[in-house]
Design a protein that fits this description.
The protein has one domain. The protein has 138 residues and is α+β, with helices and mostly antiparallel strands. Helix content is 33%, strand content 22%. Helix 1 packs across helix 2. Strands 1, 2, 3 and 4 form a four-stranded antiparallel beta sheet that branches.
Length: 138
């Protein structure tokens, strides 16, 4: 069985939407995986979310176009959990959830605590923005 078929089968069998490149490292070498993942992205089976992070796609039944298989916020949350990064909702989302504000936040802002994170997670034009907590508030 070719490597592309093995990787595609492995991706299909996974329950989550997010696939890390490190999860597929046992199937082949780095250069082989780079080539196979690039062909899967070009064919539309996957979309690239970040460095070494990919997400499954699905066909939109109304327009017939390929879309990510989950909303952006859940893709970002699953990616952070798989990477082992603890994040929380941003200040605006916390205010909305607690009832202090009626404004729905449109930008995905996450709080990283005192940890500095520069990893870019992006799907299309939507991108995660990081917010750090100051030392004196902890």
């Amino acid at each position: 069985m070719k490597l592309e078929a093995r990787v595609a089968r492995s991706i299909r069998r996974r329950t989550g939407v997010v696939i890390l490149r490190s999860e597929l490292s046992k199937l082949g070498s780095q250069s082989q995986l780079t080539r196979v993942l690039a062909t899967l992205v070009a064919s539309g089976h996957l979309i690239r979310v970040g460095h070494g992070i990919y997400a499954k796609t699905r066909m939109n039944r109304f327009t017939g176009t390929l879309l990510p298989a989950a909303p952006f916020e859940s893709i970002a949350a699953e990616a952070f959990s798989k990477l082992g990064i603890d994040v929380g909702p941003g200040t605006l989302a916390r205010d909305y959830n607690s009832g202090r504000s009626t404004q729905i936040p449109m930008v995905a802002v996450v709080t990283t605590g005192r940890r500095r994170i520069t990893r870019r997670i992006q799907v299309g034009t939507k991108r995660v923005v990081y917010e750090r907590v100051a030392k004196d508030t902890l």
